[in-house]
Amino acid sequence: MIRRHFLALATAFAMTAPVLGHAADLTIDIEGITSQQGRLMLAVMGSAEAWKGQGKPAAQSGGAPDGDGTLSLKVADLAPGSYAIRVMHDENDNGKLDTNVVGMPTEGYGFSNNPKVMRAATFEEARFEVTADGATVRIVMR
Questions:
Q1: Which residues of the chain have pLDDT under 50?
Q2: Is residue 5 one of the residues assigned to a domain?
Q3: Per the domain annotation, does 1 fall within a domain?
Q4: Beta carbons of 95 and 79 less than 8 angstroms apart
């Protein structure tokens, strides 16, 4: 009887151990901000489905640009795993990324890994790993 309870307790602990105490901090350094107006808004996505809008972001954050064209944000207690980040600079505070008549963004935007593509990056192109020690990502605005 004691052995069965011990095994059940050990199994329960083993199943929850990866969740307990293994959260990490993600530092996001954004560069190339060309306007001091508005806010930068970013979303950290934990899956390709979330990246496509079929799920919720793992984290969201935002802030006003610093005077030197940079912004550093920290996301605390993020579980280790694969993530991708998209950021937009909502210069006129209307809550969306403005575009011109042909659909090209007229406000700043960027992705983790800074992929050199002439379209929105895919999750795989922007994907990076957060380890138990955390991670730092550098994003250069377009």
A1: 1-19
A2: no
A3: no
A4: no
